[in-house]
Design brief:
alpha+beta; Lipocalin; 10-stranded antiparallel barrel; 18% helix; 45% strand
Amino acid sequence: MEKKNKIIPERDLAPNDTLKIGSGGSPAERATERAVHSVKTADLGSGGSPAERATERAVHSVKTADFGTGGSPGTPVRVSIKSQTIDLLKDDAPAPEDAGVIEYSTDGRLVLEGGRVRITYDEPTGLGMDDSTTSLIFDRDKPGFINMARSGGVTAGLTFDAEVPRQNCAVNAGVAGLEFCVCTRSVKNCVTPENGGKIELDYLIEFRGVKTERNIFRMKVTPAPESGARP
């Protein structure tokens, strides 16, 4: 078992790394890599902090690379979320089954365009993400690679990759931007546009080489109650 708070050297992506990797990947991969590149190379001379500007570009890049503009509005769905956070910095951190869990359901939309799936929903109030919209985006032929883009009150671009677990990401909660590393433990994704399904993301958050928390995010996508149709 890994010792808590063990310092692990962090590898920052250089600009050339981003350009080299991005040249052969999917639009979603290239968009996320451009987001990391913008975080690392943002100009201090323009308005806003580098992380704030980079995170905004991250969300814009993911959305426009995946779906362009004027796409299908999608199918109404019901999105049920169960999210669990375990603080790895506390010596008396509870066992995973006893850690704090947040559960909620909300309305969303499922869009399929060009072999790519997007699930979008508004975050509920009172959870620290008021006025925010979240999208999970993945290719049907690569369900183990998921982009999460948040816009609104909280702006973020996160990547979960079963094959390349360590990904540099960024978030802005409206006060200041923050860079961190997502270390994906596992990705389970059986969502299809025809039947809905479930997504489970198990990942660690690492800040400056220190693993600070473990998150287990579970999503269930079902037909919207009023529609009675498959998503």
